[in-house]
């Protein structure tokens, strides 16, 4: 749907299954995990370290906007760090039946050879922006939820 190849989600499912079989619905799943597992680990580590450091400097509990701002920084930094993995995941997912790449390593080598190292950072600006915003919302809500539940 993101690439504009399909009008609706049911159309996408129907056409992908018709052309690539049921496995086509899971194209790029391995690279999705390769991107998301490190992403989550990195983001939580950065968030916790920033939060601990800020809390030590402030010598008090953090306010909701501070937690959200720290979450935004953690998200933005993590988004930037994992952009190359996102590029690989996206290329593998949208290749369809062409099977231009045989896997993650093949994809990385082809991108490097044909487009150069800068191609691994394609889309970094919007990625950092939207993941920063998402980190702000996620960690802001997480900390607020933790404090509300702790009061009960």
TrEMBL record:
Keywords tagged on the record: Membrane, Repeat, Transmembrane, Transmembrane helix, Transport
Keyword check for Calcium: no
Solcar repeats: 1-53, 66-148
SUPFAM superfamilies reported in the protein's UniProt record: Mitochondrial carrier
Membrane topology listed for this record: Multi-pass membrane protein
Entry superkingdom: Eukaryota
Subcellular location: Membrane
One Pfam family hit: Mito_carr
Gene Ontology terms: cellular component: membrane
Family from the record: Belongs to the mitochondrial carrier (TC 2.A.29) family.
PANTHER family: S-ADENOSYLMETHIONINE MITOCHONDRIAL CARRIER PROTEIN
Name used for this protein in its record: S-adenosylmethionine carrier 1, chloroplastic/mitochondrial
């Amino acid at each position: 749907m993101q690439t504009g190849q399909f009008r609706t989600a049911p159309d996408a499912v129907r056409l992908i299954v018709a052309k690539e079989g049921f496995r086509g619905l899971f194209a790029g799943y391995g690279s999705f995990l390769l991107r998301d597992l490190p992403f989550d680990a990195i983001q939580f580590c950065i968030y916790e370290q920033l939060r601990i450091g800020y809390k030590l400097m402030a010598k008090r509990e953090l306010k909701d906007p501070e937690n959200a701002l720290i979450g935004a920084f953690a998200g933005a930094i993590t988004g930037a760090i994992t952009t190359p993995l996102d590029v690989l995941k996206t290329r593998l997912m949208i290749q369809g039946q062409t099977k231009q790449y045989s896997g993650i390593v093949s994809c990385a080598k082809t991108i490097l050879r044909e487009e150069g190292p800068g191609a691994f950072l394609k889309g970094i600006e919007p990625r950092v922006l939207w993941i920063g915003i998402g980190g702000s919302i996620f960690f802001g809500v997480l900390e607020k939820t933790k404090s509300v539940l702790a009061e009960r």
